[in-house]
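During the reporting period the student researcher (J.K.) took over the structure-prediction task from the postdoctoral fellow and processed the backlog of single-chain submissions. One of the processed entries is reproduced below for the supervisory committee.
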Amino acid sequence: FAQVSDYLAEPDCLVWADLLRPDHDTVCQLAEELSLDAHAVEDALGRLERPKATRYTTHLFMTAHTLGLDQQGELEVGRVSAFTIKHGFVTVRLDDRLDIDAVVERWDENADLIKFGPRTLMHGLLDEILDRYFDTVEALDSRIETIEDVLFDENGKSAREVSKGAFQLRHQLVDARRAILPMREVINTLMRRATADDQAPELVPYYEDLYDHAVRAAEWTESLRDMITSIFETNMSLSDYRMNAVMKQLTAWAAIIAVPTAITGYFGQNVPYPGYEQHWGVWFSTASIVLIGLALYVTFKRKDWL
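J.K. obtained the following structure tokens:
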């Protein structure tokens, strides 16, 4: 850390320091070396901070969430913060969910922009974070489409899977939205500072492109949340429809069973009736049961009650 200030004093040198899971003393030591604001340091180490960008006297501070999916398809939310000072850039990662090698590759791909200093490094970092947002949201979108494919399956087990899957996706979308939505204001703040400071006006179009990506990711997340809500409502409507279908079937079978019950009960009275003590009376009652039952079955079948 003692050498950092020496390199920062060189006009043609750009310093980048990356801290992975640092303890409080390490960050404070670097903050003292670079004159970083104590509030920004606390925000960089706090796990419950929302994405934001803040301008301090000696530096610009930014913190954001990273998104990704593990092998089980569960949403992983990480944290990364960045400090931009004159000729210096510091990243603080509370976890390794952000592929820092991919960020370095982006910096190498835009080597001609390095001359604009730490704002270029900030742009590469945000570009990688936003691309991971799109990958994550696209994967969630595919899972929603899978749920929609089984939504109209008549199998009751599939209906339960739809409810369970939709409920899990809804929680994941809430976490994703919490990470993506504030990024519009973060990038807008960084873009305004680049314009106000007039240090790197050439980077403004690049930040505008980042802002457009952030808006698209946020709108995509909102549309997926609406789709999940629609799936919930549709699944409930289908459940009511299936319940009504079951009730119609039970009613139809009860009506069919009631016919032989009524006839046998009627002819079971101890009074003479047509066919009393006659063989043809037995055949007549049996034929009545069969014919009326078949007639009701055909009627209910045509009405799609069975």
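The committee noted the following: Residues 204-267 form the longest helix (64 residues).
J.K. will present the remaining backlog at the next meeting.
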